[in-house]
Design goal:
The protein folds into 2 domains: 246 residues, Rossmann fold; 87 residues, ANL, C-terminal domain (GMP Synthetase, Chain A, domain 3), CATH 3.30.300.30. The chain has 8 helices and 20 strands. It has a 13-stranded mixed β-sheet with strand order 2-1-6-5-7-8-9-10-11-15-14-13-12.
Length: 351
Amino acid sequence: MNRYHFHKNFKLNGISFSSNAELLIYAQELSFEIHLFLQSWFSNDDFIIVETSGSTGVPKEIKLLKKHMVNSACATGDYFDLKENTSALLCLSVNYIAGKMMFIRALSLGWHLDVVHPDIHPLKDLKKKYDFSAMVPLQVEHSINSLNLIKTLIVGGGVVSPNLQQKIQHSCCVVFATYGMTETITHIAVKKLNNFKKINSSHVENSYYKILPNIEIYKDIRDCLVINAPKVSNKIIFTNDIVSLISETQFQWMGRFDTVINSGGVKLHPEKIEEKLAKIIASRFFVAGISDSKLGKKLILVIEGNPQEINTMNVSLSKFEIPKEIYFVDKFVETKTRKIQRTKTLNLIRF
C-alpha cells in the first residue's frame, strides 16, 4: 500500500476524494502539471525530483525525500497554526518547489485547496477569502487592492522591495517574507513584513527571520549561515548568505558572500545598496562590480528599460556605495521563475 495518501479532510476546488485514483482522475482534467506531480507523489518512490531555480548558478535536478517534504509541511502548519480545514489558495506553478509544497501542505494537513492559474494577477477574479496562500513579489505587487482576501501570506522567490513593503504595511493580510531554498524544501525561516507596532514616536519593532521548529542555525568562518535541519535534510547545509545572528532562533540577512564587491579595499553588499536605491528607482535594477584598474572592482548600477535621470543624493548612500557608472538594458535575462540572472544580463552590456 502506498504511504503517501492524503488527509481525510483534504479538498481540491471544493471537492472531496475517496482515493488516490479518484484524485488523479480529477487532476487529469484540471491540469497536466498537477496530474504529473500527483502521479509522482503517489508513486512508490520515496523521493521526487525537483529542479533548483538557477538564480545563483546553473539549475540542477535534486532528489527530495517525501518524508522530508511532509515534515516541512507540518513545520509550516505548526508555525502558523494552520490546522485541518484551513482554506488555502495555490497560485504558484507546481513545476517548482514552492507550488509543490503548497499542494503537499494541503494533502498532508487536510486543507481545502483552491487552484488558480499561476499568473501575475492571482486574485483578479476572486471574491472568496482564504486563510493562507503563497506568492512571489510580482504577484503581490499586482494584488495590493485584493490582499484582504488572504489572512496570512508568505512571499518567496525574490526580495520584497522597500516600496512594495510600504504598500502592504497597513493591509489586514499579515505578510511574511520567507528564507529558504530548494535544498531546504522551501522556507526554514520567515520574517514579518507589515503591521508593525510602534515602540515610540520614532521607532517601530524590528523584524528578523525566525526559524521554524526543529531547526538549528549558526555561522561559519565566513559569517555565512549554516542550517542543521534533520527533519528536512540529511545533510548540514552551508549557505553563501552572510547573516547577523540576533539569537539562537533569529537572524538578519546581510547579503550574499559570492556577491560582495571589494572596491578599493571596502567591502560592499549589493543587496543593502539596492535596498536604499529602491526608494528612488521604480524599474527593476541591480548593482554589480566590474573590473577596474584602480579599485579592483568598480560599483555600477544596471537598470531595466529606457534611460532615466537617477539622483543618488536623495538616498543615504555612503560615498563608497554611490555607483560609479549607470547602464540601461532593454530587458533583463531571467530564469524560468522570473528571477534576474545578473551575470548573463551583465554580458549584454559593452563596458
